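note to self: dont lose this again. the chain is below, predicted strucutre after it. 179 aa total, dont forget to put it in the shared folder this time
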Amino acid sequence: MQKVLIFPGAFQWVKNYGSYDGVDIWLKEKSGQEIPMADYLIGHSLGASFILSHYNSNSNCKFILINPLIKKRSTINSLLCWLKFLNLEGIRSEKKVPKENWLFGFIQAFKLLKVDILGAIQKIPKENVIIIRGKNDVFFCDEESVKIIKNNNITLIEVESGHDWNEKIAEAVNKFINK
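---
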């Protein structure tokens, strides 16, 4: 059986992602945890930034990046995109980590916004990386990001989804893992 780990998007729990094990990177008490060895590392949004910022070039795992923040943006621009996302798509309250973790989460997010996602991806063998993008993600993994992904010959799968994890993204992930 293959080991699969998920790293959630900003302020979300691992439990939001179905039956996958993972690391709750938005909880302060989990902050120093190392990334365990796995066959597949799944990173959603800033969760993708987290796993790529901890990437060990000796690792032989496969990376599934869901709506990663490919395009470089200023902190202000990223914050505006985040506000737009919350206003138009949002995250249901039950999916969010407890409020006592939000300050830690903001600090974590600001650190992860500085990660050079494309640079990190380029250090990984192409056959070990796939990006799954919601076609309706106009917030972070937008059409400009798609051009960057395609220009760098990174495998891209687009599904009927927005930025947040849903059934369509879960289906695409399962197809890739079980192929």
